[in-house]
């Protein structure tokens, strides 16, 4: 009987007894938080992990524990320079991997930014849609042919997708005022739609795509938030919980937050998670109700297959590449 995991499950609990020797995994965003923990637990269970990061010096320091875990667990680890806010960097990183030609078993698109002030990427895209979606869209699609049969693509999304659907005609807020959380919502919905359409395109070849929400965690992702914002959010959520007769809200630890990524990438059944949005190591329910903050469930627009097809086509148009 398969084990059941939940909101408090950790990465090591999810991978207990799992041997990943011979598996090659790519994880983006390994300079802090969830990316480091994801890489650590996979390497500790024998996987060879390629960790992608924009700032290699920072990532080198942050992943010292990953290298030690790899040494102790029989895995391996290397760093790859990848700036998702620059398509030149994205294409160079993908070209490097393709030139090496070594197969991959799992790609985990973990890197991202949240609620950033208005800015643009090197290529002129609003920072959050450009970094969280466009950079990953080009990078993952270019290296997807390296995935072996049975491989998986895990796209880190968020309950933040509840704040906004993607905009097909105004991704840069040229016809409206910029709002950081709306931009974040658009980008996280984009992460889900990408996984949905990726799964449709690759599943006949035995490769699946899935989107995951790690949960509420205090990491460097909140670096753009004003002082006191996290505390105010916790207080707000606790008031909501008390009013609903529920326990007070608790942020997840980093190992708990990264657990859904490794569960979806390694442990869960392919047909169970393919084309789905998962949270707390389970497939999320589709819902129209609940608050926008950290409520459970996925909005219908984020997993709509036709919407995902249209958004994929628009993304190809934006980047000038067909995949």
Q: Can you describe what's shown?
A:
- α2 packs across α9 (254-267), α5 (87-100) packs parallel to α6 (127-143) and α6 packs parallel to α7 (180-202).
- The chain has one domain: NAD(P)-binding Rossmann-like Domain (Rossmann fold), CATH 3.40.50.720.
- It is built from 11 helices and 8 strands.
- An 8-stranded mixed sheet has the order 3-2-1-4-5-6-7-8, with helices on both faces.
- By secondary structure, the chain is of the alpha/beta class.
Helix % is 40-55%
Sheet having the most strands: 8 strands, mixed
Topology pattern, helix = H, strand = E = HEHEHHEHEHEHEHHHEEH
What is the top-level CATH class?
A: Alpha Beta
Strand content: 5-15%
* Structure summary, number of beta strands: 8
Structurally, the number of domains stands at 1
* CATH architecture tag: 3-Layer(aba) Sandwich
Radius of gyration: 18 Å
Mean pLDDT: 92
How would you classify the helix and strand content by structural class? alpha/beta
Indicate the overall shape.
globular
CATH topology: Rossmann fold
CATH superfamily: NAD(P)-binding Rossmann-like Domain
Number of helices: 11
Low-confidence stretches: none
Oligomer: single chain
As laid out across the biggest beta sheet, the strand order is 3-2-1-4-5-6-7-8
């Amino acid at each position: 009987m398969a084990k059941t995991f939940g909101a408090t499950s950790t990465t090591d609990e999810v991978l207990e007894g799992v041997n990943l020797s011979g598996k090659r995994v790519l994880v983006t965003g390994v300079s802090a938080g969830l990316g480091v923990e994801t890489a650590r637990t996979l390497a500790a269970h024998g996987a060879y992990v390629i960790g992608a990061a924009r700032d290699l010096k920072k990532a080198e320091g942050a992943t010292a524990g990953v290298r030690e875990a790899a040494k102790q667990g029989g895995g391996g680890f290397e760093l790859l320079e990848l700036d998702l806010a620059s398509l030149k960097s994205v294409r160079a990183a993908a070209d490097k991997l393709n030139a090496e030609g070594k197969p991959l078993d799992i790609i985990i698109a973990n890197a991202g930014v949240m609620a950033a002030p208005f800015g643009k990427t090197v290529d002129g895209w609003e920072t959050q849609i450009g970094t969280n979606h466009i950079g990953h869209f080009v990078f993952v699609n270019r290296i997807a042919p390296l995935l072996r049969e049975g491989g998986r693509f895990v796209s880190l999304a968020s309950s933040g997708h509840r704040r906004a659907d993607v905009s097909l005609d105004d991704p840069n807020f040229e016809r409206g005022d910029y709002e950081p959380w709306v931009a974040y919502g658009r980008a996280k919905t984009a992460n889900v739609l990408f996984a949905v359409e990726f799964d449709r395109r690759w599943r006949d070849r035995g490769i699946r795509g899935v989107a995951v929400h790690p949960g509420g965690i205090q990491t460097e992702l909140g670096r753009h938030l004003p002082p006191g914002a996290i505390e105010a959010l916790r207080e707000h959520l606790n008031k909501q919980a008390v009013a609903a007769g529920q326990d007070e809200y608790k942020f997840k630890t980093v190992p708990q937050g990264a657990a859904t990524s490794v569960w979806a990438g390694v442990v869960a059944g392919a047909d169970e998670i393919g084309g789905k949005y998962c949270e707390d190591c389970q497939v999320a329910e589709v819902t129209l109700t609940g608050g926008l903050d950290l409520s459970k469930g996925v909005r219908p627009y984020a997993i709509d297959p036709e919407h995902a097809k249209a958004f994929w086509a628009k993304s190809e148009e934006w980047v000038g590449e067909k995949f």
